[in-house]
Design goal:
Length: about 160
């Protein structure tokens, strides 16, 4: 592996794998997405604009690969989140956290991806919009719909 690529993996690898886990919710699938993302980075390195921030470009590649895999799969059933370091706010009880994460898991993918990027990965709405190829208002709209669905799901429990 080239030293520059190894440096990128060392710097961004943990965060990228966390994103893969949040998106895929299965370790094997997350590992596949992680590896496929780095392969795509190597294949597309000439398209990276010199001087542009690397992490948004890397995240966009990962999210697009994930979305492509969803399009190829007709079955979109994933196991619940397990073993993830990122969790909802600490002020929630463990039972409330599990209910919230379960409700996030049940969101439609177009809403869940935005929730993962903004609330779990900590991106700004502007960063998420750029990665997803949406307007900021489009991200805000999806977040609003997701919050509404989450409130309904948690109220029912």
């Amino acid at each position: 592996m080239l030293p520059a690529v190894q440096q990128l993996v060392n710097e961004y690898g943990d965060r990228l794998f966390g994103l893969c886990m949040h998106l895929c919710r299965q370790r094997d699938a997350a590992e596949d997405l992680y590896q496929e993302t780095w392969v795509r980075v190597l294949m597309k390195q000439q398209s990276f604009r010199e001087g542009a921030p690397f992490e948004p470009w890397l995240t966009r590649i990962c999210v697009n690969l994930y979305r492509d895999s969803l399009r190829r799969q007709k079955l979109r059933h994933f196991l619940p989140l397990s073993g993830l370091e990122s969790t909802p706010p600490a002020r929630l009880s463990s039972e409330e956290r599990l209910s919230l994460m379960d409700a996030v898991d049940r969101l439609p993918d177009i809403l869940r991806i935005v929730v993962v990027l903004v609330f779990i990965e900590g991106m700004t709405e502007k960063e998420a919009a750029k990665i997803l190829g949406l307007s900021v208002s489009g991200v805000k709209s999806r977040l609003s719909r997701a919050k509404k669905l989450l409130k309904e799901a948690l109220r029912d429990e």
